[in-house]
């Protein structure tokens, strides 16, 4: 199977999202999938100009000339699309949304699109899973269309992602290792069975520490960031 992963994090391979995405993709590679990853930060993708020429003038052809010319055939040919994004402000990152909008040429009235599965990988700094609800709603609208060959195959959601890094710095790696192991197994199961089992999705999202303890640690982190910014300014 061909897997196309689109990472919208500005931190690319060094970000929290990549911590979950990378073992997930490795799991699919374990099962023989052909995996390709693109980072929106490295791409030049303009916003859709909505002139609809890709539907009515030159069907399937976008009038804008940028990196979507290279990506559109890959999106069309993929068996699985992995949308990966941190949550900064109630949704996917802006560059990834531009990319999503620019798929429009593939879905004109005469378009022939192969069956495809969609997956969401997302992280956020908040403790609550509810932060991912806008992203999940969008993914389900895009991919919960089995009559058209589109299936939403699951999501790997990691709240309190900043806490993962702090725990790793402190040498508290047991729970983190279990999360990353579950992410890799999720990739294997998706490749084999076509869906991510609910129990693996829950393991990736599992609580790492009590809510009050997490927010106390987050306040300390913010104080450190403020102090570093103040020292840099001075």
Looking at the overall shape, the CATH architecture is 3-Layer(aba) Sandwich
Give a quick account of the main beta sheet: strands, pairing sense, barrel closure: 5 strands, parallel
On the 0 to 100 scale, the average pLDDT is: 91
Q: In which order are the strands of the major sheet placed?
A: 2-1-3-4-5
The run of helices and strands is EHEHHEHEHEHHHH
Low-confidence stretches: none
Identify the CATH class.
Alpha Beta
Count of all domains: 1
Determine the number of helices (DSSP H or I, runs of at least 4 residues): 9
Could you write a compact summary of the structure shown?
By secondary structure, this protein is α/β, with parallel strands linked by helices.
Summarize the SSE layout with pairings.
Elements (H helix, E strand, L loop, with lengths): L1 E6 L8 H15 L3 E6 L13 H4 L11 H10 L2 E7 L7 H8 L14 E8 L9 H11 L6 E9 L2 H9 L4 H20 L4 H7 L6 H23 L1
Parallel strand pairs: 1-2, 1-3, 3-4, 4-5
Helix pairs in contact: 1-7, 7-8
Structure description:
The chain is α/β, with parallel strands linked by helices and 234 residues long. The chain has a single domain (2-208), classed as Rossmann fold (3-Layer(aba) Sandwich). 46% of the residues lie in helices and 15% in strands. The chain contains nine helices and five strands; from the N terminus they run E-H-E-H-H-E-H-E-H-E-H-H-H-H. It has helices at residues 16-30, 53-56, 68-77, 94-101, 133-143, 161-169, 174-193, 198-204, 211-233, and strands at residues 2-7, 34-39, 80-86, 116-123, 150-158. A five-stranded parallel β-sheet has the order 2-1-3-4-5, sandwiched between helices. Helix 7 (174-193) runs antiparallel to helix 8. The chain is globular. The protein starts with a strand and ends with a helix. The relative contact order is 0.15.
């Amino acid at each position: 199977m061909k897997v196309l992963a689109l990472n919208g994090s500005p931190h690319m391979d060094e970000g929290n999202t990549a911590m979950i995405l990378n073992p997930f993709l490795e799991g699919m590679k374990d099962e023989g999938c052909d995996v390709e990853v693109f980072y929106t930060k490295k791409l030049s993708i303009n916003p859709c100009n909505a002139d609809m020429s890709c539907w009515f003038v030159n069907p399937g052809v976008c009038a804008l000339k940028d990196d979507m010319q290279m990506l559109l055939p890959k999106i069309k040919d993929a068996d699985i699309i992995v949308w990966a994004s941190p949550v900064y402000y109630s949704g996917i990152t802006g560059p990834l949304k531009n990319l999503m909008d620019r798929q429009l040429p593939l879905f004109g009235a005469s378009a022939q699109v192969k069956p495809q599965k969609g997956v969401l990988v997302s992280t956020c700094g908040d403790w609550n899973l509810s932060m991912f609800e806008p992203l999940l709603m969008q993914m389900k609208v895009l991919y919960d269309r089995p009559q058209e060959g589109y299936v939403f195959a699951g999501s790997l959601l990691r709240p309190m992602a900043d806490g993962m890094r702090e725990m790793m710095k402190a040498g508290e790696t047991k729970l983190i290792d279990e999360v990353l192991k579950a992410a890799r197994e999720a990739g294997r199961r998706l490749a084999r069975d076509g869906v991510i089992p609910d129990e693996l999705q829950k393991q990736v999202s599992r609580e790492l520490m009590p809510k009050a303890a997490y927010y106390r640690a987050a306040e300390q982190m913010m104080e450190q960031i403020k102090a570093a910014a103040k020292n840099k300014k001075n």
